[in-house]
Specification:
About 5% of the residues have low confidence. The chain is mainly alpha-helical. The protein is rod-shaped. The protein contains 8 helices and 2 strands, in the order αααααααββα. Helix content is 70%, strand content 2%.
Length: 185
């Protein structure tokens, strides 16, 4: 069978299937194209023509799986490779000096979504898609990470929470800062 026949007969079904998984038109189109390139390259391996549809959907499912696996790994690598230098641009010691250390101290499951959301500016839906997690999980991980950052400021810099729920206090000198001194050792 020719690839054009597969395309004409199953393109819409494959596109709907992929769209249901990735929820993004541009990515869907790319993955549909990638799926049919694989179909073209592997069409000679199809032994039983009565199983064309399951064979096509297996290729599509594996293409989507590979996409998410690669996206998740890229997100983790972005965070792991980052030096967080973009966070602090002030010459004197401030609460921003402590932030990279506090972020680094977070467990990875909180650090990655927080970094992608609050530092890189990704929308939570994008993060959920990239990490293959439900949006509710991503939201709770980001909230938990923020609470751990607040707790870190309270422990490191003796900040307190005022009656409006805001952190208040004065940043310690660099020599007395637990987080900044930890980076030196």
């Amino acid at each position: 069978m020719e690839t054009i026949h597969f395309w004409e007969t199953y393109h819409d079904d494959i596109r709907l299937f992929i769209k249901s998984k990735v929820k993004n038109d541009h990515i869907t189109d790319d993955l549909v194209q990638e799926t049919f390139i694989k179909v073209h390259n592997k069409k000679d391996t199809l032994k039983d023509e009565s199983k064309i549809k399951p064979w096509l959907f297996t290729i599509a499912r594996n293409t989507v799986y590979d996409f998410f696996k690669e996206s998740k790994q890229q997100a983790i690598e972005i965070v792991e490779e980052s030096t967080y230098e973009e966070i602090n641009t002030e010459p004197e010691h401030s609460e921003k000096d402590c932030l990279p250390g506090l972020i680094n101290a977070l467990p990875q499951k909180y650090r990655v979504p927080l970094f992608l959301s609050d530092i890189k500016g990704y929308k939570q839906e994008q993060i959920a898609e990239q990490l293959q997690l439900p949006i509710s999980t991503v939201k709770s991980q980001i909230q938990r990470a923020r609470k751990l950052i607040v707790k870190g400021y309270m422990e490191c810099c003796n900040y307190t929470m005022n009656n409006k729920g805001k952190l208040v206090g004065e940043t310690k000198s660099k020599e007395n800062c637990k987080i900044c001194n930890k980076k030196k050792h």
